[in-house]
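We read letters as residues; the fold follows as tokens. Both lines appear below.
***
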Amino acid sequence: MSTSVRTRRPDGTHRVVITGMGAVSPAGVGVDALMEAVMGKQCCIAPIQRFDTSEYEVHNAGEVRDFDALAHGLSKKEARRFERFVQYAIVAADEALAQSGLDMATEDPTRVSVVFGTGIGGIDELQKGFQTLAEKGPKRVAPLFVPTMIGNIAAGNLAIRYGMRGECINVVTACATGAHNIGDALRAIRHGYTDVALVGGAEESVSPICIAGFTNLGALSKEEDPTCTSLPFDVRRVGFVAGEGAGALIIESLEHALRRGAVPIAEITGFGSTGDAYHMTAPDPEADGIVRAMRQALEEGGFTPCDIGHVNAHGTGTPANDKTEAKALADLAGDAAHEIPVTSVKGSIGHTLGAAGAIEAIVCALSVAQDMVPPTAGFAEADPECAVNVVTEPIRGLHQKVALSNSLGFGGHNACLAFSPYEA
């Protein structure tokens, strides 16, 4: 390890870098497929194939289509036993681990953690179990019903698969889950509780009960044209589009990464986490919680709002969320807010709920690492009440000190991650 590299932050805590990434999304399997879709403004939203939607008001979603667990490294037993959100998590984690070059045979397994969540968990198994109980009685409910369905089982199975014996937890904050898992592990590494962590989130939310529930809540877009369903910050927006998948990252202290010869992709320079204490489903229109989370993430890295290269917004395409997030950026940055590029990947892949914060962290980190800002698919007509600089075409060659990735969850959970290019 080079002695010239500054591996500690000014406060003495560890710098934390990303060394591996993996994704399963409506764009397909792999980070390359995800980035190609996002940078190309591809719409990966389409009519739902998994179940009959003839009696539903919503017919489109961001499904992971033609997913073959066996083709992506799972055994027949795992493919049969594991719920979809766990399968997505494993495939994404396999990719992240391979890119990172982390060799568990040479690691102290008690210093490698798994912090990996899901917003909803095994909803398919839950729905199937209730149906079996109602139709066939209690003795016919599957013996593995509970350990198949519970949300923490993705983290548990990942730890078992790779032999990671450090902290193993599942932080659940609805649509902010992926970001909060990354942030929780970031803090543990910063303060020396662990050296490496497999982090992220997974979701299998394109299911009958979820689509019905979100529809009746009035949260989903009912537009029939898939290209007009997810419209972040657009004046025509009417709701979000349910998506699914997983995002996984290997993050570690810079000291540990350099010692084993890993190549850092980007640095996580800050994390903010706040609560609205306002409403079950609606964001606080004053946007105070989001502003505080963004400010915390910036200040932790020693940045000011003037340093922001772009914001990867939560940007769900719901009227309330986008308006509130736009106000938050204006309150944070003042007049400069109009110049900050803002993007949302949900125009391409929909809202992947518990996986969103992790998938968007991957996109945001690669954006700063590669000096670019992705466009927002679907955006065409600006909303005067969302006075933000929405990116409509890819920006390239833009060096950025820091970029922010926002995630907001039902219940008033706010998370903001700050990413910077890795510089020795």
User: Anything to note?
Assistant: The chain has 13 helices and 16 strands.
